[in-house]
Amino acid sequence: MSERQAIEAAPAARRAKDTAFRLALMACLGLSILLLGVLLYDVVKDGAGHLDWHFVSSFTSISADKAGAQAAIWGTIWLMGICAVFIVPVGVATAIYLEEYADNDRWYNRLIEVNIQNLAAVPSIVYGILGLAFLVRGPLSLGNTVLAGGLTLGLLVLPVVIISGREAIRAVPPSIREGSMALGATQWQTIWRQVLPASIPGIATGVILALSRAIGETAPLIVVGAATVIAFNPEGLDSQFTALPIQIFNWIQRASNDVNDYRPLAAAAILLLMIMLILMNSIAIWLRNRYEQKW
Amino acid sequence: MERVTEPQDRQEEEQERGLSQRIGVRQDATAGAPAVDGPATVPRGPREAIFGLEEVQVSYGPKPAVRGVNFDIGKNEITALIGPSGCGKSTLIRCLNRMNDLIPGARVEGKVLYHGQDLYGAQVDAVEVRKRIGMVFQKPNPFPKSIYDNIAFGPRVLGMKGSMDEIVERALTQGALWEEVKDRLKTNAFGMSGGQQQRLCIARCLAVNPDVILMDEPCSALDPISTGKIEDLMMELKQDYSIVIVTHNMQQAARVSDKTAFFTVELDDEEHRSGRVVEFDDTEKIFTNPADSRTEAYVTGKVGE
Amino acid sequence: MEASASAAGARAVPTLGAARRRWGELLVKALLILATLLSVLTTTGIVIALLRETIDFFGSVGVWEFLSGTKWTPLFEPASFGVRPLVIGTFLITGIALVVAAPLGLGAAIYLSEYAKPRVRKTIKPILEILAGVPTIVFGYFALTFFTPTILQDLLHLKVDLFNALAAGIIMGFMILPTIASVAEDAMSAVPQSLREGAYGLGASKLQVSVRVVFPAALSGIVAAIVLGVSRAVGETMIVLLAAGAVANNALNPSEPHQSLAAFIGATAGGDAPTGSIEYKTIFAVGMLLFVITLIMNLISIRFVRKYRQVYE
Predict the structure, then answer these.
(1) Contacts of B14 by beta carbon, 8 Å cutoff, 6+ apart
(2) SS3 state of residue B214
(3) Above 0.85 for ipTM, yes or no?
(4) Global pTM?
């Protein structure tokens, strides 16, 4: 066989293998996207018809055609608010300390970092147990209140805020800090007036992503005692409460007895939840694109 | 201050002029004419030292970065620190406003006296130091704020009294920037050119009314025209402030400074580089008749960076 | 000029002031440290909460019985506290999830890292992020109301119960797929281009480069990705709770209902268990086991992530 034939002949079989491999890889992606598509289609199909003003403004009820998600919606909003009030100061303060004050050669600071990384991977239901033991019962004894629920969710997503906050702070170049300190500003003045304002877009994005994770969680709320049948919106921090994921869970369980009535309700509530999530994530992306500082 | 002694004959004079032309020293200085009172000079009595450095040595970690620093920095003078890369001139200048405090493991030995006080005394607050001794950095570092807020930042955090508008205008005027930006004070500083940004940084420094201005290679990131503007600015500023400038541009040092300190690099047994001050004198002397052969090798270009 | 000269001279010799302790700065630092300690406190809290009740639990129930017993009926009379079925349920479902997520996730990662053009990557990555952002309860709903009846039973004619481990496992696989894909893709992207070029230069095909050069080079990151995915699957509650039923089951039969550790906790902790009851304590004992398992996996994963980052930096 001539050299040329040798070079040209061999690849034919190999090219077939290459193409097959490439197609297999694309199939992997394709399957994932397909599943997402089917899932969304299914949810929309089941629930879109039921998603109307009546649904949003009614409370849950024994009869499925009268039931609505108002209590769940407001419960979720309250939880989000309490969670935000908790995670923003604590998360940002921790991020500032770790980036601006902590000396990374010290063992205790490295331990804190590993700690936060671990917390980010603890199953969400374990946070529910933590909330049950210390917030609902135990030392704080808040009971099955929306405050306990919001704080539990806050503890769950705090690592997200800390990690993204640190990234945002780290992105501010050292030259800005030097310029500020060289003028006679103290470390805190530099952080408060230069570093933080420049990191706010990144921090805000992180907070929104943390909150969108928080409102999608069911398991911790179950353990912390969110009510499943409740006909009022939260009236105070000490109110009992429900939330969209909990209501969805309850309606799915009822659907096992009564598919036709409760499945559309569950699906409509899922749609509502997904809409909220899409909205929040879009805001986060918009924020990042609009306000991100290019150094 | 006595000028250089008159050359013995024309040939020597021409030789010197040739040398000085190569490095751009002003002609009247080498011609032996007495100092002319003009806008660039201040009638002064005995030379007052702002900084006194005695056997100063700076180390990051166990090995020294620069040592053997012994000289004074005079009031209303421009003092240049020159030398090859790695000789510690930036390290030293950062000691003068205690910016090295920000680097963990940095250590200063010897005496750094500021108006007779030990700058590193136990009672001294580094923040107070920096209010009086300002710094301009190699790469312009304006804050991501408006021009106005850049200038106003220092006065605000220091709690300076008075109309902020006036303070900002005065600083920008002193920094030779007012005319160019007076109509766009609220625009973002990042929109300015490199040379303008650096003048902004100088004006920002001036706004807090410092005593001394330290400049760490302020023109090395700039084009020649901006460099020229900043050099002119420095000559004006020295009437009211004392300036120390690190530069690796010898011509610049020769053009603007009154005194020059020459640093050299040494290698110890373990291949560790450290800097040392070889010579400190009037600028003309350093460039026309240096005492040390190492200085001469550097200023005549025999030795590279 | 005279004025400026005298102004310069008239400026008083500045004293540097005694270093008055800046109380404001110290206060701020103290507050920041307090906030940081909260994260440490959380971990301590978790450990204490779990430990206390678990030790209490083992006062009534033997450790050996717990770990090796095969019947889990804590709420019946007579109660049985062998946690084996829960562990079996957890790892059966996780195993099925891995069978789905590992090949698909790694395949997607290789494609994104080695084959996809930048524009394709920019469109695909957000889609994967959407998949990652779907709340687990939605996955659970989908598994129970669509996947089992329509796909498994009608389409594939599999003989599965309404509540079964197969559906939970497969859907769980899609849930952890984005995690595996993104960590693995990170690891593969970190492999220096020079390694690929060396292989291409020798006449290797893209397939060979991807599989024989990049994949092994990124191996520690890939292992980290899989371990992380497994950890998420083990700790996941809602998909199992909704789709796999509430029956603790020892048989390794995916078509039957199973209960995982996390699902048991979710099913039991409705908020009414009286403090101190055996019911209450089982929540913590099982929670402890779950926490320990996932902690070990997370530490392993972090170790592997550090390894792949180190090699190339």
Answers:
(1) none
(2) strand
(3) yes
(4) 0.86
